[in-house]
Amino acid sequence: MITYYGDDKKMLLKPDITQSEIELIEKLIDKHPSWGRTRLSVELCKIWNWCHPDGSPKEISCRDMLRKLDSKGLIRLPEKIRNTGPKPGRKKGIQLSLKLAHTRIETDIKKILPIRVQTVKDRSYKGKEFKFLVNRYHYLGFGQSVGENLKYMAYDRYSRPLACLLFGSAAWSCAPRDAFIGWDADQRKANLIYTTNNMRYLILPWVKVPHLASHILAKVAKRVGSDWEAKYGHPIYLLETFVECARFAGTCYRASNWTRVGSTKGRGRNDRSHSIKVPVKDIYLYPLVKTFRKALTS
After folding, report:
1. What's the per-residue H, E or C state across the chain?
2. Tens digit of pLDDT for each residue in 223-257?
3. CB burial class (10 A; 0-12, 13-18, 19+) of residue 240?
4. How far apart are the C-alpha atoms of 129 and 164, rounded to whole Å?
5. Distance CA 215, CA 200 (A)
6. How far apart are CA 140 and CA 296, in angstroms?
7. Beta strands 207-208; 105-106: pairing state
C-alpha cells in the first residue's frame, strides 16, 4: 500500500512508490477506458481501503495523487471531463443532508412504524437525493448504476428518510455462489440476468434504531422481484450481496434469513483477469422462490 504524508488537501507522495502500485493504476486505466478520473479514484480507494474515519472514500486526495503521478510522467490519466452546466439537485441535496443530520432518530422501531419503502427513479428529485446521500454517507460512495438496477428509499411513519438500497448486476463469477446454485459456466452466462446484487445498503448515519436494517431488508425482499419484472420484463430468482468482513458482521442479513455461503478471495466482483486485489468479503444469498435452482440451471 502507498504511504502518504500531510493532510487530505496537501497530500505528498512517498518517494519510493512501488512499480507494482503504478502498474495497478495503469491496468485499471487500460481496462476501463470509459472511466473518468473520479471513478478511477473511487475504485482505487476501494482497493486500498483508503477512507475517512466515517468510511467514505478519500477520492479527492486520491485524485490529487493521480495528478501528481501524471505530471511526473509515471501514468497517463484519461482526459478531464468538463461539465460547464449546473449540477442539478446538488444544492438542494446538501441543504437536505445538513438539515437531516441535525435531526437524530434514536428510538424503538415500534414508534416509527409502519416503514414505507418506495422505488426511486433516476432523473427525479428523489433520484438526485438518493445519489447524493449514498455518495456522501456510504463508505464506497455511489459509483455508477449501469445496466439493470433498482433503487429504494425507506421512510418512517413521519416520512423521514431512513435508508437507501441499490440493486444492480450480479458478480460475473463467484465460486461459493455458483456452487450453491449448482450451475455450470454456460448456465451462469445464460441466467446471470435473473440474479441481482445488493450493491449498496445505507442506513443514514443519524438513524439509530435497533432491528431497523433487517426490517427494511425483509420488506424489500418481498417486493424486489415484482418491481424488477415490472421495470425490465423478466423475473429475478436470487439476491446476492458482499459484506466486507473487516467492517461489518453481516448481522442484518443473517437476521433477514440471508444465507452466508462463503467468502471472496480478495478480488474484485467483476475481475475476470484475477489481477485486482480488494478486501475479503462474506457472500450472502437470498432466494426469492423455492425453485430458484431449477430456474437458474435450466
Report:
1. CCCEECCCCCCEECCCCCHHHHHHHHHHHHHCCCCCHHHHHHHHHHHHCCECCCCCECHHHHHHHHHHHHHCCCCCCCCCCCCCCCCCCHHHHHHHHHHHHCCCEECCHHHCCCCEEEECCCCCHHHHHHHHHHHHHCCCCCCCCCCCCEEEEEECCCCCEEEEEEEECCCCCCHHHHHHHCCCHHHHHHHHHHEEEEEEEEECCCEECCCHHHHHHHHHHHHHHHHHHHHHCCCCCEEEEEEECCCCCCHHHHHCCCEEEEECCCECCCCCCCCCECCCEEEEEEECCCCHHHHHHC
2. 999 999 999 999 999 999 999 998 999 999 999 99
3. buried
4. 10
5. 16
6. 30
7. parallel
Q: What whole-number percentage of the chain has pLDDT above 70?
A: 80
Separation of first and last alpha carbons in the chain: 44
The mean predicted confidence, pLDDT, of the chain is: 84
Residues 74, 68: contact at Cβ < 8 Å? no
Q: How many CB atoms lie within 10 A of CB 197?
A: 19
The span from the CA of 53 to the CA of 58, in Å, is 10
Letter string b/e over residues 144-154, b meaning 16 or more CB atoms within 10 A of that residue's CB: ebeeebbbbbb
Which residues does residue 282 pair with via DSSP β-bridges, in sequence order? 243, 263
Can you give the pLDDT at residue 145?
66
β 195-203/238-244 pair status: parallel
In angstroms, the CA 126 to CA 153 distance is 9
Q: Give which of 168, 88, 94, 154 is closest to 124, Cα–Cα.
A: 88
Q: Which residue has the higher pLDDT, 255 or 272?
A: 255
Cα 172 from Cα 192, distance rounded (Å): 8
Q: Does pLDDT of 56 surpass 80?
A: no
